[in-house]
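Tokens for chain A. Residues wanted.
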């Protein structure tokens, strides 16, 4: 039996309880977690913004040590350090055939499989986004584990599984920020802070961080922001004022709200790129008129998992970490236990802090 944070029903409080995991069958791996990040997507699953079978063990950003492997697993062995990959490529769908593995049609198929059972009543549990990282141990498909980069502390490596791949990828793969460009990042939680660091690594000349919280300015500047703007109705105007009245070359929206997406679009220069990373609800409707789309010539694009290929991008990110260009610890503003996850959700809703990290 291991302890896990279980979502009994959509909208219900998380329950930290014992669960019974099966042994790793063919093609599966059992992992002892070192750490798991608390991502806004976990909150979206808990409150019903994103759909998931329940009851479920949430958590999708994690790293740990292989305990045992099932038949046919050869790329990792007991004792290996691994990063969890919550959206593995199937390799056979239309998107994967085109090399767009972040759009894999079958990436989340495992979320509908029974993952474990509650120890108290034997009821079935599902893995929230394939990997069920809010637990001391988990059993996942072999495609959901990647070798952890050498030299990166295992607890910090957990952040590579979502926040950093998403934020870095949004800047480097989706928006393709070039040296000398100006960038605005809307929302400086874990993903936003990673995007700020990524913009600095890309050589952005000016990086404007935008958030509702004055307390995040220090975090943003430490990550590489040159300017900090408190979110308001006048944010686009303030950003244009910082960029010779032009607007930024690239705006990266990490919130997922209609008003923020619209503000990011309005803060982008004519001919610039607006990249939306945040996951919003169906009720968040963003409107544009036909004339402004023509006049501004901007590009508005969505971004899934940073448009990343984890197997290829993890070694690149490790190189940045080991060279001191990417500071994983700077994303973390609290280290908690499983019991602290509801509080981390509350902080997200209130716009406080960066990444909360569950450390086992």
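Reply:
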């Amino acid at each position: 039996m291991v302890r896990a944070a279980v979502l009994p029903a959509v909208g219900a409080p998380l329950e930290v309880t014992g669960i019974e995991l099966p042994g790793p069958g063919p093609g599966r791996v059992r992992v002892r977690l070192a750490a798991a990040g608390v991502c806004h997507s976990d909150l979206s699953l808990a409150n019903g913004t994103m759909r998931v079978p329940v009851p479920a063990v949430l958590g999708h950003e994690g790293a740990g040590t292989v305990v045992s492997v099932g038949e046919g697993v050869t790329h990792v062995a007991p004792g290996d350090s691994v990063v969890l990959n919550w959206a593995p490529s199937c390799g056979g769908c239309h998107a994967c055939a085109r090399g767009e593995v972040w759009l894999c049609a079958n990436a989340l198929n495992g979320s509908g499989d029974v993952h474990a059972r509650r120890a108290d009543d034997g009821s079935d549990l599902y893995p929230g986004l394939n990997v069920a990282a809010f637990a001391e141990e988990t059993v996942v498909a072999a495609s959901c584990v990647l070798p952890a980069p050498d030299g990166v502390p295992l607890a910090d490596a957990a952040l590579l599984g979502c926040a950093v791949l998403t934020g870095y990828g949004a800047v480097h793969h989706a928006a393709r920020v070039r040296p000398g460009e100006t960038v605005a990042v809307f929302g400086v939680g874990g993903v936003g802070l990673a995007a700020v660091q990524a913009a600095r690594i890309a050589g952005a000349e000016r990086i404007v961080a935008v958030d509702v919280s004055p307390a995040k300015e220090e975090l943003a500047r430490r990550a590489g922001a040159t300017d900090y703007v408190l979110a308001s109705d006048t944010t686009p105007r303030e950003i244009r004022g910082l960029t010779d009245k032009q607007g930024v070359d690239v705006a990266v929206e990490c919130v997922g709200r209609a008003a923020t997406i619209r503000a990011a679009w309005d803060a982008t220069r004519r001919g610039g790129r607006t990249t939306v990373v945040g996951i919003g609800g169906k009720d968040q409707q963003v409107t544009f008129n036909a004339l402004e789309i023509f006049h501004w010539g901007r590009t508005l694009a969505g971004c899934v998992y940073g448009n990343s290929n984890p197997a290829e991008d993890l070694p690149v990110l490790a190189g940045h970490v080991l060279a001191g260009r990417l500071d994983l610890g700077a994303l973390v503003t609290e280290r908690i236990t499983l019991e602290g996850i509801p509080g981390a959700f509350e902080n997200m809703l209130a716009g406080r802090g960066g990444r909360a990290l569950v450390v086992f």
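The chain has eleven helices and 18 strands. The chain has a mean pLDDT of 96.
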